[in-house]
Amino acid sequence: MNVLPSPFPSLRRRRLETLQVNLGYRCNQSCRHCHVDAGPWRTEMMESHQVELIPQVLRHCQLKTLDLTGGAPELHPQFRDLVRAARALGVAVIDRCNLTILSEPGQESLAEFLAESGVRIVASLPCYEKERVDLQRGRGVFERSLDALKVLNHLGYGMPGSPLELDLVYNPSGPSLPPPQQSLEEQYREQLKGSHGISFHHLLTLANMPIKRFARDLEVSGELEGYQTLLREAHCSDNLDGVMCRTLISVSWTGALHDCDFNQQLGCSVGAEPAVLEDLLTTKDGLVDQPIAVADHCFGCTAGQGSSCGGSLS
Q1: Average pLDDT over residues 237-263
Q2: Domain formed by 12-210+245-295, architecture
């Protein structure tokens, strides 16, 4: 007799450390696995008054990190002003970069700006093989990504002993769990350094979430239910302590607060107050002990070795 899977375990937030902000859905790519349905046709962008609240929130909540995502966050017209403001507060800034944005018209000085500002780059590169990257992300993306990585290396990013952090992100192309992060990192390092002379600091392995564009593709191919079952059956309770939602709050381009980027895309708001970015200016405890909204997709963060914005949890 089959036993139905139990619900995802309840979670509560610890003290906030990271503000993750989605600046908008506009992107120069339209990747098959994208869980936000980003693309060149999207027009959603965070309004100026919301962007201007972010440094105030960073200061008031004494946060350590501002994690900028999208779409391509660099396409927001206030991206650079926001980075400068956060760095002036001593806050670490992460740019979730798709690499090809560095060669887009009008972005010719972007790499130099990121280096001068000491921004940590977390760059998408789902494989070290051209065919797979282009299939998943679009024709020509692999070569443009390599060119961008070489520019970043020239500026000091990813080089041994350099304070300019460059991490790469791997995610599977289909409904499977990522392989062990350490061994895959060694393969990436061997292939990228040996074949292209490219260096980086770390590889982060992320599982694909069965939501939005990826979920629709799986549903069409008849693989959605099987993938959801795989995630549930691979759940590892040891990973619950390290999931990103314990110390992070996610802000949508509208200014609404969510427990993580995935909940944001599913419209799952934080439990009660505060509900929008401005509310964080009046909170005193940084949302400590607030219940976190969980659902079946959360198994994607605890399956196998675990998956978070910082890579494997095990």
Answers
A1: 93
A2: Alpha-Beta Barrel (3.20)
